[in-house]
Model the fold of this input.
Amino acid sequence: MKLLVINGPNINMLGIREKDIYGNDSFEKLEKDIFAWAGDMGIRVEMFQSNHEGAIVDKIQEAYGNFDGIIINPAAYTHTSIAILDALKAVGIPTVEVHISDIDKREKFRAFSYVSLYAEKVIKGHGLLGYKEAMEYFVAK
Ligand code: CA2
Done:
């Protein structure tokens, strides 16, 4: 099984500020953890991070026919991007949406997610372990 893990804008800044919300771990630590978990689970993962909406749409389109699942934390684009929602719908790849924080318990504008209209599972507020949970979900499927 091959999964594509996509992280949106500013996730590469993890561990630098807002540690009370996103924790102390860096983005590099998250990448290392994801590859280690993938090794343990016997699956392959590719990781992609971008601060640009169009680049994320391009990556989702390129995933067509090449991945069994997508794990996506669209970050701020969660709440704004119909383009990312449409790209996910266009490729039809099973998708799990992950949020490090619990977006339902923060500012009102974070509670709505376009991507949730497509994602078959949404994991929020479980910190970086949410990505592991998403991987386990695909393995169990
Ligand atoms: O909780 C999540 O995973 C989010 O997707 C993270 C996004 C936020 O816009 C979403 O509403 C919820 C933010 C990504 C990281 O932002 C940082 C800001 C400052 C310092 C480090 C990271």
About this structure: The pocket of CA2 is lined by residues 10-11, 13-14, 16-18, 22, 73, 75-76, 78, 99-101, 103, 110 (CB under 6 Å). The chain has a mean pLDDT of 98.
